[in-house]
Amino acid sequence: MKGRKLWVIAFLAFMTNGASLLGIGQGSAGSVARAIECNHNIAHNIQTAKALGLLVGNPPIKSNGEFFGPFQVDCSALGMCSVLA
């Protein structure tokens, strides 16, 4: 790389990282990527906190349907209430 190509690459490198090389880290490409990642993480954490906030203090909903254990039989469903009684 001679002459003009070298200066173009040097200029592009300085434009990309020049702010961080000068000590102004807020303008560098890395800081922009960190800011985007941080904003994404903050938004994700806020969304998770809101979802968990809805669950606080609310017990699980019990179903109204009857549940028979493994050894209980609904004799009316079988039509054998007189036999099982």
Question: Can you describe this structure?
Answer:
- Helix content is 62%, strand content 0%.
- With 85 residues, the protein is mainly α.
- The protein has a domain at 1-56.
- The longest helix has 27 residues, at 29-55.
- The termini are far apart.
- The relative contact order is 0.05.
- The mean pLDDT is 75.
Give the key terms:
single chain, 85 residues, mainly alpha, 62% helix
Major sheet characteristics? none
How does the overall form come out from the CA principal axes?
rod-shaped
Kindly state the mean pLDDT as a whole number?
75
Radius of gyration: 34 Å
Helix tally equals: 4
Helical residue percent band: 55-70%
SSE-based structural type: mainly alpha
Oligomeric grouping of the chains: single chain
Q: Indicate the proportion of strand residues.
A: under 5%
| String of helices and strands | HHHH
What secondary-structure arrangement, pairings included, does this model have?
Elements: H1 4-21, H2 29-55, H3 75-78, H4 81-84
Summarize this, please?
This protein is mostly helical and 85 residues long. It contains 4 helices and no strands.
